[in-house]
Amino acid sequence: MNRKPKDFPCPGKRADTVDRASMLRVDQAGEYGATRIYAGQLAVMGDRHPFGRIIAGMAAQEERHRQHFDAMLTARGVRPTALQPIWNVAGFALGAVTAAIGPKAAMACTAAIETEIDRHYEEQLHALGNQDPELSESIADFQAEEVEHREAALAHGAEQAPAYPLLSGAIRLGCRAAIALSKRI
Question: Is 129:15 a contact under the CB 8 Å cutoff?
Answer without folding.
Answer: yes
